[in-house]
Design brief:
CATH architecture: Alpha-Beta Barrel
CATH superfamily: Phosphoenolpyruvate-binding domains
Structural class: alpha/beta
InterPro entries: Pantoate_hydroxy_MeTrfase (IPR003700), Pyrv/PenolPyrv_kinase-like_dom (IPR015813), Pyrv_kinase-like_dom_sf (IPR040442)
Shape: globular
GO cellular component, one term: cytoplasm
Oligomer: single chain
Family: Belongs to the PanB family.
CATH topology: TIM Barrel
Largest sheet: 8 strands, parallel, barrel
Organism: Stagnimonas aquatica
GO biological process, one term: pantothenate biosynthetic process
Radius of gyration: 18 Å
Length: about 290
Amino acid sequence: METIKPLHVAELRKMREAGEKIACLTAYDASFALLEDRAGVDVVLIGDSLGMVIHGGNTTTPVTVDDIVYHSKAVAPHLKRAFLIADLPFLSYATLDRALDSSQRLMQQGGAKMVKLEGGREQASIVEYLSVRGVPVCAHLGLQPQFIHKMGAFKVQGREDAAAEAMLHDAQVLAEAGADLLLLECIPAGLGARITAESPVPVIGIGAGAGVDGQILVLQDLLGISPQVTLGRTPRFVKNYMPGAVARGEKGGLIEAAIADYVREVKSGAYPAPEHCFDLPAGAKP
């Protein structure tokens, strides 16, 4: 019987170097963790998106470290291969000590192998502080849901030249500070490709175009059951994979088949298609 080797940071770097796309998906419980791992998902994220798709809130800001630890503990034991990342929720990394304490809980109690935080160059000291203490970090740029009350709306970021240049600089600073992964959310496809080309670490996108090293979606969006999708507010970058599985007449394993379809399309480059991507405004630099 073939032994399943768990993925780690070095393997994700090797996938990038080999040109293999990295397929990522959120999960919040044991049942979906098993399906995602079996379907070939490379990276599983315990996202603070649970505040919206599990708790039914309008933002991610009420999510606590206790919430993330709880769901991470439910997922971690059931991943044989997939690499587990857990979100540091709102204000849980506001100081160096809080960031370290929160990361310790997510990794020791929750079983995560990496933590994710939002913010640009202003988070470089936090990233470095965690990194030199053995905590792998994913830095999140672009649309940052934890900043929604400052941003004012969930909208595409980096469309103006100055904002795009600032984001490129942020990505470089965070990688130099020790970030092992970058996640780009809701930015023009050209900017996503440019950041990826200049990044020394793998770049994962959600609404960041096809030119990144991997893709991530919220599980409930992929299945067409998240509150925003069921209310008719489907984000441009979301693709519902359930209709394809149903059309093929899959029996008993519709959800796993839908997840496997997503993995295949990420790996082949079929997802995201142009209709899932954001363009730069006319006249802007790529």
